[in-house]
Amino acid sequence: MYTISDVAKLLGITAHTLRYYEKEEIIAPIRNANGERVYDDANLAWLRFVMKLKQTQIPISQIREYAQLYVEGEHTTQARLSLLENHRNSVQSQIRDLTATEKVLKDKIAAYKNSINNGIGYDKITREKWR
């Protein structure tokens, strides 16, 4: 069993974030005899999954929806699958957008390096090119 500070330290988040997730019904930690939050390995695994989802910019409302569906039981498996598939489609779209942006940045960086290596001002070349 882990305390709230243990979990915060293990996951690199704040105790405030954990309390927020509880308030949003994303996690339901166990309470000990003193009423203190304690977390088990299943809570930790779930929180790691939540953090991965957060890295993909999923709205907290969708994480809450997924958590509520999970708590409802096996009959929500299809709904959970659909939610994750829809989100994966969003992530794939983000990846395509980021890949295109990376290419633009790569090309711009190469042009700057080329102009520096050739002793020609990049801004001058750019102005001439766009006239």
Structure, explained:
With 131 residues, this protein is mainly alpha-helical. The chain has a domain at 1-58: Multidrug-efflux Transporter Regulator, Chain: A, Domain 2 (Orthogonal Bundle). It contains six helices and three strands. It has helices at 4-11, 15-23, 41-55, 60-72, 77-117, 122-129; strands at 2-3, 30-31, 37-39. A three-stranded antiparallel sheet has the order 1-3-2. The longest helix is centred in the C-terminal third of the chain and has 41 residues, at 77-117.
List the helices and strands and how they pair.
Layout: E1 2-3, H1 4-11, H2 15-23, E2 30-31, E3 37-39, H3 41-55, H4 60-72, H5 77-117, H6 122-129
Antiparallel strand pairs: 1-3, 2-3
Helix pairs in contact: 4-5
Domain HTH merR-type: 1-69
Keywords: DNA-binding
Pfam families: MerR_1
